[in-house]
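the two lines:
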Amino acid sequence: TQLLEQSPQFLSIQEGENLTVYCNSSSVFSSLQWYRQEPGEGPVLLVTVVTGGEVKKLKRLTFQFGDARKDSSLHITAAQPGDTGLYLCAGEGQAGTALIFGKGTTLSVSS
Amino acid sequence: EPEVTQTPSHQVTQMGQEVILRCVPISNHLYFYWYRQILGQKVEFLVSFYNNEISEKSEIFDDQFSVERPDGSNFTLKIRSTKLEDSAMYFCASTFYGYTFGSGTRLTVV
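prediction for all of em together
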């Protein structure tokens, strides 16, 4: 059974600080996706990483896929209160197959 | 921006009753999915649907569950005899190059 361990589960920081969220597995994934989920809403796709070692940037967010395609990280630079929310990682075994989700990281950024 | 639309947004049903959750995926997407999220827990895969048939299903998706694409646009999830533990947010998703999730249906079984 494929599992994705996401850490930390909760993160509370001050505006302007940097943070990193980790997603780890013993399994290889064809892609790793990062989502943000607001209360009462569905996950919204932020980015998909496909190639081992790939780095993608989305404004202040930097996503990295491990060389072996078993792990990924999300780094936020200079966090803002608007970054507050639930961040989920999800791995895809093969294209079109089920996503395996991590438990999520609840981020709280206070001003 | 194209959306995946789910109805109803909330459904309360009595234990043992049948419920049908509806979804309209994005029109040019090829794969359709149902996921669920029990309160406080991770998002879990239920079933995927491709080319008018189930392509993959999880252990959760037992004989009480079924999916249908009755016409060219709707994609439904039916739970035949609901149990208390079926209470959850149910998300429909569709993909072409990337996943798009709907806003979910909150199902409460009482």
